Glutamyl-tRNA(Gln) amidotransferase subunit A
Amino acid sequence: VTAVELADAFLERIDSIDSKLHAYITKTADTAMKAAKKADKKIAAEGKIPFLTGIPGAVKDNICTLGIRTTCASKMLDNFVPPYDAAVMDKIQKENAVILGKTNMDEFAMGGSTENSAFFPTHNPHNAEYVPGGSSGGSAAAVAGGLAAWALGSDTGGSIRQPASFCGIVGLKPTYGRVSRYGLVAYASSLDQIGPLTKDVTDCANILNVITGYDEKDSTSVKASSPDYTKSLVQDVKGLRIGIPAEYFVDGMDKEVAESIHMAINDFKAMGAEIIDISLPHTKYAVAAYYLLAPAEATTNLSRYDGVSYGERVNGDDIVSMMTNTRTEKFGSEVKRRIMMGNYALSAGYYDAYYLKALKIRTLVKEDYDKAFEKVDVILTPTAPTTAFKIGSMINDPLQMYLQDACTVPLNLAGLPGISLPCGVSSSGLPIGMQIIGKPLDEEGIIKAAYTYE
Ligand code: GLN
């Protein structure tokens, strides 16, 4: 097939299905067709073409796209059209990929269900009554529903891996610093990473090849050479030491989720891996630490939406009331909750008790992993304690929603890479995901393990 035929097929499918799934906030059919034509010319002119040439994908709406509206699913950025491309977009455009549109998400990436979008919730392609997970729920639903061949998401505390798990696809959060954050609208800068959501591990490795690499425009970018991740697409786990941390089988975990993970552990054993019980004792504090640190950073990052420099403005009698009106009207309730939590944690009287303590826990969580990785090569856990939940069932219980992140946030605190891949289906027909955690910069190790299992 030609790139134009391929783009046509995806656009037609989006036309017929996205009114039900609501995976996209903005569809870019015209630019997609132009890009497809350009890709076809390139394919005709050159024999050997880059992997992504002419392959249609979708991009989470917090990644800046030159000339294409980028909303972060917030009314605050309803009409924001970036004057530049994020670093990852530059890399993707160089390959002549075809961008079908920008995907729905929890507002400013705060949430785990995509219900916090200011526009509409996204539905899970496996069952429309259920959430796709979040915050990259639009990207996950687009790939799982066949509305994009690949997608980019961002992961601050699980937002790539948890929706991948809920939608039965593959999602990878790279090591902090592996992928440039330049042009990713910041949520919590010390935790955010961009990564791929794909149908399988092979596509994941290929997308990773495109987006990784040092970038001088991101001060936390890691100066490490990017390996060719497709070289890790080999089936070999003989002698691989896989750590199983008891702490990740948390209270309230679905029985079926735990069972699926244990079956996967047995499969790895049968393939020659060595299974080793490990302990990551500070895991139980990770969610609490995350929900102090991430909102604290978010508070700072979101202070720029003041009605002056970026985004929308709601007028008032003077400058203070203009700012107050703007932020009151244009931020959703979860964003406001986080701003309040963050300001509280950072305020003079509470800084030592909360923010500083959370930073210390962050170090302890990291040290737990360091110790474990002296004995094991990778760590295998559930991605989330449950399968997808029903739309509306948890949205009024933020604490319950935060506990969903128990297995994913510790990695972000430690900066480690993690991949989520399907490992079963629940009795109600919903996908179950497992997570494989790697040493810093060892995306190759987790890709290899995931590929072997898949
Ligand atoms: N669910 C987490 C939160 O609400 C993670 C979000 C993310 O990774 N962007 O903060």
